[in-house]
């Protein structure tokens, strides 16, 4: 985004000050300072029983939006479950809840069902919140709001500093949140993550309204809140880092076998799969196709620190892949459900390639004028699909219907349709 807009955003939004604004968004008055302590101190961690019922009642009786955040143990534990849930609401203060001790928070979720939830990067936290029974009916995503408003840095710390004038300490974002008991500095950090979230929401709402983008943001938030849970990924082993080096089907079978064994072990131990066996080691074994434990142990990732029993376990997986008949070997690549890779368009369909080139240029120019990332204006996949198989008639009504069919929100349809109509006509008329 442009420096001019960044300056404008700072001057119109930033409320510099030492003491935090109150929950109604009253601005602070002095120079920006680090925010070191929650307003009411660090709340005790709720582990169930009467304390959870008390917090549920307090938050149900609170007013206005409720700030919600969750901490996971990515890189340490298996899966993406929540290990701490933080909330803040006017009239209720802040709360820290241990979802390991309180695995069912559906009662709290129901108590907050009528409130707007404020989250930062909502799509990251909603899956783990859903697992414990917490789902918003309405939400406001401060990270997405920042993107739509044109802020170049949309992390929570950057947004709080640029918009509200406070500095959040972010040193504990990547710690192992499954640790028990949680150290006090971590709890302080967690409480501060929701301390100013509602204030940030109010400021961003004003900025979006000033830019004429508030309705766009509300449509985006509604799409996130109403989206169904994502379906399990097909063939997740294909996302092994370094997979692009694996070309032969027999080697792919080794990756698949090792990945599946590793996943079962990681799930049983409740540890991150990378702590069981690295992706690099899986790919190394797939490329080498070792014939015995001795050959496997000579490879990177299977050295002296790997015990004999573990080596035998991995070699057994390799042997299974080596013994598979050709008919059971995985096919190269995943089934293609959409257009081919754009790099192949010039050879497969030069007219479609011209349409895509014109569409990309038009979308890029429009995103720059609107001061937002292209992917928030319209997904690249949607642009490719429209350009590869355009409607029979490249008029506004037809293109708008196609965009809506691919899930574009009304504001996106309104903004992007003229650009794509022009691209389909200038790059090669639709349907030809």
The CATH top-level class label of the largest domain: Alpha Beta
Uncertain spans, ≥5 residues at pLDDT below 50?
1-29
Distance N terminus to C terminus? 37 Å
CATH architecture of the largest domain: 2-Layer Sandwich
Mean pLDDT: 91
Instruction: State the fourth-level CATH superfamily of the largest domain.
Output: Ribonuclease H-like superfamily/Ribonuclease H
Organism: Streptomyces cathayae
Pfam family, one: HRDC
Protein name: Ribonuclease D
Domain HRDC: 248-328
Secondary structure blueprint with pairings:
Blueprint: H1 3-13, E1 33-35, E2 45-46, H2 49-61, E3 63-72, E4 82-90, E5 93-97, H3 106-111, E6 116-119, H4 122-131, E7 138-141, H5 142-149, H6 156-164, E8 166-168, H7 184-195, H8 197-211, H9 214-226, H10 249-269, H11 273-276, H12 279-288, H13 293-297, H14 308-323, H15 345-348, H16 350-370, H17 374-377, H18 380-388, H19 396-405, H20 410-426
Parallel strand pairs: 1-8, 2-5, 3-6, 6-7
Antiparallel strand pairs: 3-4, 4-5
Helix pairs in contact: 5-8, 6-8, 10-12, 10-14, 16-18, 16-20, 19-20
Protein name: Ribonuclease D
InterPro entries: 3'-5'_exonuclease_dom, Exo_C, HRDC-like_sf, HRDC_dom, HRDC_dom_sf, RNase_D-like, RNaseH-like_sf, RNaseH_sf
Pfam families: DNA_pol_A_exo1, DNA_pol_A_exoN, HRDC
